[in-house]
């Protein structure tokens, strides 16, 4: 079997750990502040998903595989966890809860529904792939190059967190070829067996359209105990835009 995901464990030794699964092009590092604050009361395990961060690369990047990766970490870290997943990580967390419910105590799904989406992320893959990184020594230089194809400074700053400048030449800590080849599966949603009866929170950004009223029946069929909450003024990147509000909402749900 492939080696296990890379992860950081923070907080106390005792208690049900909270596993955090990041979204596409992210890493455990993106969750540093939120993970640290949530670890005040409970162990927190922030993973790098496969093909991201320092975790192993694989040609396969579908939700059954991503869910098995998470199940393996949880088995290694005590057998059961609360699981928080954002976007792609949210789909992996839902797949885990539906296929390996014994591994999941409580589930928090951040701004994603168990449905297929139409918006491709291929332009960002092409932009990163197309960057000539030879001779780049500073993040600002890479940012200037990336600005030709990615207009939004916030998106560039996020992507550049996965640029390894210590490598010579610099390299992306992302398996761009595999993520590009598997994009249809990343945007999609496999017909998942079963239901997850445990406590579940769908936490969304009020300014995001990823989770709408039209998704509620689909969600409730799979997650009958689902509750819904929105963070005012937050878009899809709710944990980065409103970290305090996000952390408070997650903590309140986990402590209830």
Show the helix and strand layout.
Blueprint: E1 7-10, E2 18-21, H1 32-38, E3 44-47, H2 63-76, E4 81-86, H3 88-99, E5 104-110, H4 122-129, H5 139-146, H6 153-160, E6 163-164, E7 171-172, H7 176-181, H8 183-187, E8 200-205, H9 216-222, E9 226-231, H10 238-241, H11 243-255
Parallel strand pairs: 2-3, 2-4, 4-5, 5-8, 8-9
Antiparallel strand pairs: 1-3, 6-7
Helix pairs in contact: 1-11, 2-3, 5-6
Can you tell me about this structure?
The chain is α/β, with parallel strands linked by helices and 256 residues long. The chain contains eleven helices and nine strands. The strands form two sheets. It has a seven-stranded mixed β-sheet with strand order 1-3-2-4-5-8-9, with helices on both faces. It has a two-stranded antiparallel sheet with strand order 6-7. It is globular, with a radius of gyration of 18 Å.
Q: What amount of the residues lies in strands?
A: 15-25%
Runs in which pLDDT lies below 50 for 5 or more consecutive residues are none
Beta strands, count: 9
Could you tell me how far the N terminus lies from the C terminus, measured between alpha carbons in angstroms? Answer: 38 Å
Number of helices: 11
Q: Could you say which overall geometry the principal axes of the C-alpha atoms support?
A: globular
Instruction: Average the pLDDT over all residues and give the rounded result.
Output: 95
Strand order in the largest sheet: 1-3-2-4-5-8-9
Main sheet makeup: 7 strands, mixed
What is the string of helix and strand elements? EEHEHEHEHHHEEHHEHEHH
The residue fraction in helices comes out at 25-40%
Could you say which structural class the secondary elements and strand pairing correspond to?
Answer: alpha/beta
Radius of gyration: 18 Å
């Amino acid at each position: 079997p492939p080696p296990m995901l890379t992860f950081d464990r923070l907080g106390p030794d005792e208690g049900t750990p909270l596993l955090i699964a990041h979204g596409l092009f992210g890493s455990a590092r993106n969750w540093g502040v939120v993970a640290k604050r949530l670890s005040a009361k409970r162990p927190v395990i922030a993973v790098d998903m496969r093909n991201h961060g320092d975790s192993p690369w694989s040609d396969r990047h579908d939700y059954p595989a991503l869910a098995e990766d998470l199940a393996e970490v949880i088995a290694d870290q005590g057998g059961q966890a609360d699981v928080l997943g954002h976007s792609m990580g949210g789909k992996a967390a839902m797949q885990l809860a539906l296929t390996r419910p014994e591994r999941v105590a409580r589930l928090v799904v951040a701004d994603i529904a168990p449905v297929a989406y139409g918006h491709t992320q291929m332009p960002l893959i092409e932009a990163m792939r197309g960057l000539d990184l030879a001779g780049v020594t500073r993040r600002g230089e890479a940012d200037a190059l990336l600005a030709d194809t990615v207009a939004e400074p916030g998106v560039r700053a996020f992507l550049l967190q996965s640029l390894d400048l210590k490598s010579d030449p610099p390299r992306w800590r992302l398996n761009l070829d595999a993520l590009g080849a598997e994009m249809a599966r990343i945007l999609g949603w496999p017909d998942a067996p079963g239901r997850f009866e445990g406590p579940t929170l769908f936490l969304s950004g009020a300014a995001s359209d990823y989770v709408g009223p039209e998704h509620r029946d689909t969600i409730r069929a799979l997650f009958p105990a689902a509750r819904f909450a929105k963070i005012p003024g937050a878009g899809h990147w709710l944990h980065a835009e409103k970290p305090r509000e996000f952390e408070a909402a997650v903590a309140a749900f986990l402590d209830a």
